[in-house]
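Expect chain and fold; see below:
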Amino acid sequence: MTGGVQIVSHQTHGIQSSYHFNCTKSKSSQGKSARDQLLEQAHREYQTGDYVSAEIHCRQVYQTDPQSPAVLLLLSSIYFQKRLLDDSAYFSREAIRVNPTLAEAYSNLGNVHKEQGDVQQALEFYKYAVGLKPDFIDGYVNLAAALTSIQDYEGAIKAHMEALQINPNLYGVRSDLGNIFKSLGRLEEAEECYQKAIQCNSTFAVAYSNLGCVYNQRGDIWLAIHNFEKAVKLDVTFLDAFINLGNMFKEARIFDRAVSAYQRALALNVGHAVVHGNLASVYYEQGRLDLAIETYRIAIRLQPNFPDAYCNLANALKDRLLVSEAESCYEQALKLHPEHADSLNNLANIKREQNRTHEAMELYQRALKAKPDFPAAHSNLASILQQQGRHHDAIEHY
């Protein structure tokens, strides 16, 4: 089989609005003005993702109080979530006009620029925001996300640490910090971050999944499985964790449980081509060739530019003695990816079996050019060279 399965780390913070509306909790609703009650309602609707209703009610307050920073910030956040970025930027600037030291407005403006691809300008706004308000957690989180997006990992680590100094119990931030350490190969620090995230919130499925990724990277497959299982137990809709769990069972050759995990993933997203491809690979390993062929074809229908699936389908077809179809699939994989080493090697094997030795040699050589440390291609090419009496050349490839 070709195309190794990919273990997916999970991020917990993406672009986010940095607006947090603070209402007076001590008063009863009877003691609040109609304006305050309407603004609180808009805020609750925003928090639950009902941005249409939030906009309607916040606009009603805005008509009577267009200079309120809280109203302007909430409108900025609503329009950001609705991806009306120009409107979001307008209300952020209005909030700044009313209160030039309002850190949240600068951070929201940074969110807009980051979403528009202007990361450098976003960074300026985030840095200005935390300069105005040194205990501004969301500002540091947004700054860290922007720095991560331009691969300034040390800067991102520092920004995450600033947020954690303000509030050590931010388990999502700890998990994101762990992801940075993991990407840098600093696995012990990543593990510590995920463990601390779990200590802060023992039901945080993302941290268990990311911890599983660390153990997988270390080669500790059973600890990886344990943590992925914990993640899907905590969150039965956690697609990436089901995929990772299936990958681990596949690697451990516990094929029935790999099938079960992949099927759970497909129940969550039936159109996930890579999962169909991974499931087909398990069927192939089980010797269920017809089911493997059918499932590879599903993967290809879902993702036509999927060279690994074409190559693996070709392998199954060849085992079914459908050599002509297999040859066509290898060729299609190479149209999509001319340096696809497995397809080059496997197509060369067919040419060799057809006594088309010269074509086979060219394909083996192309495979080695694409992947110089490819043992199968070296061995296959050496075998031909030995048969031709070119023993010295053959030895170089063995």
About this structure: The radius of gyration is 28 Å. DSSP finds 22 helices and no strands in the chain.
